[in-house]
Amino acid sequence: MKLLQLAGYKKSGKTALAEALIARAVKREESCAVIKNIHGELDLTGKDDGERFLKAGAKTAFLHRKGLTDTLSRTGGLMDLVRRALGSCDLLLVEGFKEAALPRIWCGSGEIPQEEREALLARFFLDASRREPGGGELCLYALGEDTLEAVDRIIDSLPPFPAGLDCGLCGTDCFGFYRKCIKNRDMRCPVQEGEKSVTLSVNGKELSLTPFVQSLFRETVKGFVRELKGYENGSIEIIIHHQTKEEKK
Asked: What is the pTM of this model?
């Protein structure tokens, strides 16, 4: 899973850009989820935006307000919501949560606090009026094809998000490690590197698995296979042929 934050002030185009990126992900046959930080009431503007995300094709929209999701279940904050999405989608968009300082596109003309420039990937302006970059950053204007193709390239360049355990093996938490990965693309989450013992592909496309799911797959399959005649220790490869409705006709 890759993670991209869309940060900026109110009415800066974050939601419009998120809708467009969701549609692009769906077109690429990738699943997408969105986490949105709500400042108003969850039963009003929040759900309106959530419906926009789902209509655009998002698999899930997490609407967060002061420790509550729109289902009113308690959460541990942004990291807890990210964990819910890990392994279930290819792209996770985080709208809002400026204080998290994740790899981000800053939306709108509002001033970017100096301490938040570390994770800045680009600036996005909903209108087409050209502006001089404040710090030499990439500037994108309006929701045209050029802008969306540029964001596609940014998404393609993102490293995979860490395991989400906040275990400290990398010397920091998962958000901090992800920011470091943007500067050094050779860095790898020690948990993911140590635990990648299961690879699951569907039609040649590898799916992202959390360490827990990998362990569950590995132990379950080994438990079945080791009882079969001819079993030997080593790598196990299973191919399941699933016919589509058209193929069955």
From this structure: 0.63
